[in-house]
Amino acid sequence: MSAELKRTIRNEADVRRSVLESTLYSREAGFAETPSHLIATAVSELVRNILKYAGSGEIRLRRVKKLNRRGIEIEVVDDGPGIADCEAAMSDHFSSGGTLGLGLPGVKRLMDEFSLESAPGEGTRVTVRKWI
What we know:
Layout: E1 4-9, H1 12-28, H2 33-54, E2 57-66, E3 69-78, H3 86-89, H4 103-110, E4 113-118, E5 124-131
């Protein structure tokens, strides 16, 4: 696979394809089976959020290096309604969509680095990294 993988998310088939591709991508980047499954779980949550809250968006996976480490960066972006209270959204059991409210906090726990940028009416960008 190339150094970057980019997919548009518009439907459930795109979600399934992104999850599968993220597993393959992480394995080819050198991740073992368990971390690859953690990455796929994070991707699943992030792209499902795109469908649920924004309707469509994009995911990008990139191989990254930092000092003597290498890993994968996952960025999801949408032009949806945005998140009114990012701090609350990062609290376990907070949900604006009638779910369990464990998605974003769970992704943060699965990954090594996590960044959330969002504002009402301006969409959302989540960037996460996992290091080998």
